[in-house]
């Protein structure tokens, strides 16, 4: 059971928008920055969003992040088939003194 | 280019020891934390622990404390993850990751080292 809760799967059609939620508590998301990672099939994860809503160089602005209270959301607009991947949220948990991840969300672009 | 390059896949028997490596390049190795993340087959990501090569400050997840040892040799910009006695349940992909601070994000990720433990 992961400390952060994500939906197991989401789907949408090409060109549409999708959001992926990540729910935690005051010991993790509520008081720490959230990051998001994309794991394409058979590859290592890649940083998509850091510090709740910042994009690293090279990440298109179709990807966005937000945080409110103890929840965070990843948004992807203009969906492409190449966006099919597993997406993970992550943050620090001050009670555990450990980094924690969500269980991951599989995105299907129909 | 900032890169983390990990050692190759390993096949071991239960009870054997193992040390896998992660070599950093393209940045100041002693100025960033290096962490390890486990991904069991078909499962999600689990943070194992992290080390600051500058002073060898090391932290472990409660789930992995006592199960593995994380170390680093700053003279060759390499971090290590080791087991003294492997179990079948250690079969997984292991990624090393770079972080600017203890509580921060991870970027980049190494390509992963697949460890298979089977009799």
From TrEMBL, chain A:
Keyword Cell membrane: yes
Assigned keywords, A-Z: Adaptive immunity, Cell membrane, Disulfide bond, Immunity, Immunoglobulin, Immunoglobulin domain, Membrane, Secreted
Top-level taxon in the UniProt lineage: Eukaryota
Subcellular location: Cell membrane; Secreted
Gene Ontology CC terms: extracellular region; immunoglobulin complex; plasma membrane
The keyword DNA damage is annotated on this UniProt entry: no
One annotated GO biological process: adaptive immune response
Domain called Ig-like: residue spans: 1-89
Gene3D superfamilies: Immunoglobulins
Pfam families: V-set
Region forming the signal peptide: none
PANTHER family, sorted: IMMUNOGLOBULIN LIGHT CHAIN
Subunit structure as annotated in this protein's UniProt entry: Immunoglobulins are composed of two identical heavy chains and two identical light chains; disulfide-linked.
Protein name: IGL c869_light_IGLV1-51_IGLJ3
Organism (species): Homo sapiens (Human)
